[in-house]
Amino acid sequence: xxxxxxxGLPLQLLINGLVLGVLYALIAMGLALIFGVLEIVxxxxxELYMLxxxxxxxxxxxxxxxxxxxxxLTTAGAVGLGALFYEGLLAFIAGRGFERSILLTLGxxxxxQNGALYVLTATPRMETTPYSYRSVILGDxxxxxxxxxxxxxxxxxxxxxxxxxxxxxxxxxxxxxxxNRAAALMVGIDTHAVSRLAVAIGVxxxxxxxxxxxxxxxxxxxxxxxFVFKAFAIVIIGGxxxxxxxxxAAILLGLLESVVGGFFSPTLVDSLGFLAMIMLLxxxxxxxxxxxxxx
Amino acid sequence: xxxxSMRATAMGLAMTMVVSPATGQDAIRVGSSxxxxxxxxxxxxxxxxxxxxAIEEANAAGGALGRKIESDFQDNRCNPAEAVKSVSxxxxxxxxxAIHDGLCSSVILAxxxxxxxxxxxxxxxxxxxxxxxEKSGVGGNKWTFKVNPSDAxxxxxxxxxxxxxxxxxxxxIAYLGESTDFGRSGxxxxxxxxxxxxxxxxxxxxxxxxTADFTAVFTKIRAERPALLALYAVGxxxxxxxxxxxxxxMNIPLTGRVLTDQIPPEILQSGVLDGTTSVQPYVPExxxxxxxxxxxAFQKKFNSLPNLLSRESYExxxxxxxxxxxxxxxxxxxxxxxxxxxxxxxxxxxxxxxxANNLAHDNAVIIQIRGSKIEVIGLNKT
Lengths: 295, 382
Known about the structure:
heterodimer, A: mainly alpha, 2 strands, globular, B: alpha/beta, Rossmann fold, 2 domains, 7-stranded mixed sheet, disordered N terminus
């Protein structure tokens, strides 16, 4: 490289894109997991993410719980909420047609969003933590500390999910149900319990995302909308139900958005994921890494 | 006997049910289509509150033409298509004497042809796109009256101040705004005002409403090293922009339409925004007796400080009610004629009168953040 070449801009965009992509993956992963096991597209996923962020906001501001305590409590609460979500609603429609699941989760999404709007009003809220305005500086590159934490939490969650799915009996059962529910039932796997666990983990991941990102983005009832549609695009690009595919697609989208937003126009950014999704549906409808249940 | 008594009671109840709506029809009704849900619902809420306070005060003082004033609010989610639907419905109801605002510039531009065809006055409180006034009065649409300043007049007031006080920095202004008529009008206003002084914007970037992440565009702007960054963002987007601006260590002084009343307190108190110079149609810190009275009444009723949306809606509803009173009639055409002859003192100390483009020229507030405090440094006529 010549002495006049400034690597600061591309390097910063690359780092921004990687961080953004991992955050997208954190939100999309829960969606992919629920689809992989139950074949239900959870349209309420964005609102569950929003609930996580709202819970984190109130834990921090009203109960003065610290950042890490908020992350732990919100994630645990989201796991519990996920189990309830399955037992109270999803268990009744699992395997009873795609349309029912769309209508039900869409309905839950509307109720949660408008309920939050009624209770909290539309006023955007900001969760403030002791780390809110600190950055990690590496040469010409700076990364806000809370994004570094969110990145670390996401990577930790992915690692834990990997260990659970590939090195535990419960994980084997989840993968078994995802690959062939009828066969799993025949060999004695409790598919109901496995499905409940998958939804609990999926919603737990969205709660973790909400808690980790509440101090990064403004908290308001419609905050999930911006992310959930991108998450849908990511899940389709990665291959429906394919968790590794979903992670790779999320990081690719984050990088693409960062580069386009940095070198061209930010107005193009939102359409990129959907443009990629349309192209894939036309030329590789099974997604980048193959449609199917690969956990 | 019992039967006839029951019949009489039933007839009485039926009569009551018939009479009640007639009493409602006696009220002078104003229609309004604003975002009550979606990203800008917070602003819609404040716009509604401002209008409701003005109506409440007018009704407490006897209403207009001896009748009570009432307003109906419908949700448009800041979406022109939904606004066209809701305003069309209101116009077909044929019971509104005027339409109050739409909040978003794109919405107002979309409903202007409707109110012109229906021959009903539209009083604009919040939409700031320059095109609204350009298309009104001698611009063609005789039924639209814009009470708040346009983006062009606000930008002209700000650029005039910046060039006079910060001539070197004025030569390198980057622009970041939402990709709506509001954001686009802001950059247009800057470009026109700068061009008059032989200057131009260093760069202009726009983002979609609802964008959560601004790191890419901030990286781009930081690499360009401008002296000032003109910001045109509202609602939740503004909160995201301002927080990420600080956490990303932007260090480029802000200007434009920085919503100082929406800045999180910890950011304001940290001092990182010191040096921000902004223009607003209103800030709660304006030190006039009328503003203090308005602010106190607003806080008492809504338990919240007013913002520019609530103040603009309050002032605009005052203008409309004043016109209805002077018109001596609730006929839309008479109200339109009375609006043309408006001469009413605003809470910012200017006399509100409509020019040939049906645009009123209120004072603009130039503000600066100094020592973590918001200071009003000038009230300039737009």
